[in-house]
Specification:
The complex is a heterodimer of chains A (about 525) and B (about 90). The two termini of chain A are about 35 Å apart. Chain A is α+β, with helices and mostly antiparallel strands. Chain A has two domains: about 170 residues; about 210 residues, no CATH class. Chain B has about 90 residues and is mostly helical. Chain B has a domain of about 55 residues. In chain B, helix 2 runs antiparallel to helix 3, helix 2 runs parallel beside helix 4 and helix 3 runs antiparallel to helix 4. Chain B is elongated and about 55 Å long. Chain B starts with a helix and ends with a helix. The model of chain B has no long low-confidence stretch (mean pLDDT about 80). Classes of the chains: A alpha+beta (about 525), B mainly alpha (about 90). Chains A and B meet through helix 5, helix 6, helix 7, helix 9 and strand 1 of A and helix 1, helix 2, helix 3 and helix 4 of B.
Amino acid sequence: MKNFTITQKALRAAGKWNETANFTVYYSAERSIQDELNRQSQSDILTIAISYTIMFLYVTLTLGHIRSWRTCLIDLKISVGFIGVLFVLLSVMSSIGFYSYCGIAGTLIIFEVIPFLVLAVGVDNIFIIVQHFEKSKEEEEDQSTDINLATTISRVGPSILLTATSESIAFLLGALTPMPAVQIFSLYAFMAVLIDFLLQITCFVSILAIDARRQDSNRPDLCCCCQMNVTDSSIEQKSKGILQQTFTKILTPIVLGNSLIRAIIFSIFIILTCLSASVIHRIPIGLDQKLAMPKDSYVLDYFYGLENYLSIGAPVYFIVNQNAIDYKKIDDQNLLCGTPGCSSISLLGQIGQALRQPKHYYLAQPPSSWIDDYFDWLQSTNNPPCCRIHNQTKEFCPATLNDTSCVTCPVKFIENQRPSSDDFQRYINFFLHDNPGEKCPKGGHAAYKDAVQLINNSSVKSSYFMGFHSKLKTSADYIGAMKSANEIAKNISKTILNNQNRTYQDSNQLEDYPVFPYR
Amino acid sequence: MFSIFYVYYDQYLSIWRNLIINLSLSFAAVFLVTCILLGFDIHTSFLIILCIFMIIIDMFGVMYLWHIELNAISVVNIVMVKIKIFNINQ
């Protein structure tokens, strides 16, 4: 890389730009996706603000029931609409505040989605209350505003209560799911909907009463200090709206009038449902990460390069749990090792079998096995051998050290060229600190220093075997790879437990599994 | 010391189960609440539930047609839509 950059710089300095484009570097870091998502959501703020404004304008302008152009200023309900939307924001804020006090952190999706949700739910109720109120005012003009409002609330109250309760409870139950995103979302939405409902049946109704008094005394909206002179004769009796007419004259007779049409509509919907039900199991699972990235992101280039040019996937670790295996015993070593002579049901043997079906198990390379390399290292017959100790200090001598006082480790090999338990423990730390080199390529410092955890520099507590998945492109690949790794680890766990005369059972406790992938 | 992607993809192993549990819970809740608040009118409550159920199934059909993948976001949306439909149904 260094040479490349220097050459490129020289070429560029000489004006040979064409020769500089020899290869392209695609790059991505662990935090790239998060960074790009943050960048994306910051640019989303404008969109959110615009949609809020449009929704707000729509609510305030359509809420008023304008009777004629002369009275339009009086009939407008901008202030009521504004307060209705304000209540929605207030309830979302109180919900956020409540959960902040409880210590439940929200995510960005909550702050983006929940206001819309509560706005949609809350605006419904506002429309229902205002429209029913207008209607009851028309029907019984002789009654006072307060009585009218009371009748309205007694009529629509139950239905609003019904929706609000079931929504709140449904959201609250949603909090029982184990997916954190859904859980937190449900909790926040529950509180916001509940508070919005409470505000609507108390404060909003009083605001509506004040507004009705203003309208009765012919004062314009937003500027209630001045009074307008509007004679009652100028107010025309308004006819029903287009929407209402379509419903009463066209849709209702068609849908409800003829039993044949009803049957047809019913069958159409039943067929639709059956068709949809038949494809449910084919809905893909996963998230296309490319969709979430901004269009100009460098991560998109990285994904492109990953799909087209890479030939190996993410690393996979098979971790042997602590206390699962007594590494110094030959029988237990046989459950792990992978050299010729080891059993085919050992950890490496089973992974080796899985490697023969790369499409099914998504494995590309056999795991590097520290235990086999350790045995090779002990048995090495090079000159000098890998394992040497100083004859006086008993310290380790690396293969590169030229000292006559270094002697070959006095390893006592028992059956199958395995070291005795004492020797296994005595030299493992030397192996893990030996740098691999020309004379002794099996040294374990580079590859296995982190793979083996030692107690007192002698007995092995836990260890891992690292392999590689094959190339993973889509979400389905990733999920498949994960399932396969789980499956392999489960089989290995079963074998190990069988050999120790214990029975395998599924459990949530990590300690119950001798071998597990990742984590 | 772990494969980074496993952390993200762990949720997908149980996503269907979670979605089904979530939907059935909210169906039960909606049924109970409508039943109680409508004065134990089981017939009407059942019709409401049937209607919502059909809409949810239709929505899955649309998800398949439009190649919408099932993930945390769409699960949240499905639950939200379900509740919203209920709101409209009233």
